[in-house]
Amino acid sequence: MNPTTRRALAAALIIGVSAIAGYAGWRTQRHVDQATPAPKISDSALRQLMALQLPDSDGRPQALQQWQGKVLVINFWATWCPPCRKEMPLLDAAQRKWADKGVQIVGIGIDEADAIHNYAVTNKLAFPLLVGGAELVDLTVALGNAAQGLPFSVVIGPDGRVAQTKLGAFKDDALEKLLQELAPR
């Protein structure tokens, strides 16, 4: 193959890959920051979520069932995800404010145990960080995360029903308003 043909093929390949990446980015962005009130989630997916027992950042097993009856915000995240890390202070502030009002926030890391442990030690959050690993991506899809993006949150009311799912980080006072609506009075 001559040099001119190689350059033409390389240019075509770069253009093709760029087009595919651009399209994928556009499709993903369409799904980011979408909150879905009262989503249709199968009882099976919700049971599977609530049956999880995962190690916390110190390696101790924690069952999600221990928080049944509370408003439960389950946030799927990763240490390598910039929007996830940006959202953490908001979740921490919400946990500190709402803890005595029947709210529990739980972070489930789609990440390595060591990375989650180091993040927890460095950031000293008011809520537990559990180690979920990549095998939980399929569960997030069953819970409404068709784009398989992070962060992804599932908000469960004190009645045990899913009140909302959210792909993308909570912003401004959206979480605050939601917790005001759901928290026991």
CATH architecture classification of the largest domain: 3-Layer(aba) Sandwich
What is the alpha-carbon Rg in Å? 19 Å
Helix content, binned percent: 40-55%
Order of strands in the sheet with the most strands? Answer: 1-8-7-4-5-6
Secondary structural class: alpha/beta
Strands, count: 8
| Largest sheet features | 6 strands, mixed
Specify the number of helices.
6
Write down the secondary-structure element order: HEHEEEHEHEHEEH
| Average pLDDT, all residues | 86
Uncertain runs: 10-32
Principal-axes shape call: globular
The CATH class label of the largest domain is Alpha Beta
Main location: other
Keywords: Cytochrome c-type biogenesis, Redox-active center
Pfam family, one: Redoxin
Subcellular location: Cell envelope
Describe the structure.
- This is TlpA family protein disulfide reductase.
- InterPro entries: Redoxin (IPR013740), Thioredoxin-like_sf (IPR036249), Thioredoxin_CS (IPR017937), Thioredoxin_domain (IPR013766), Thioredoxin_ResA/DsbE_sf (IPR050553).
- It comes from Niveibacterium microcysteis.
- It is found in: Cell envelope.
- This protein is α/β, with parallel strands linked by helices.
- The chain folds into two domains: 31 residues; 148 residues, Glutaredoxin (3-Layer(aba) Sandwich).
- The protein is 43% helix and 21% strand.
- The longest helix is centred in the first third of the chain and has 29 residues.
- The radius of gyration is 19 Å and the shape is globular.
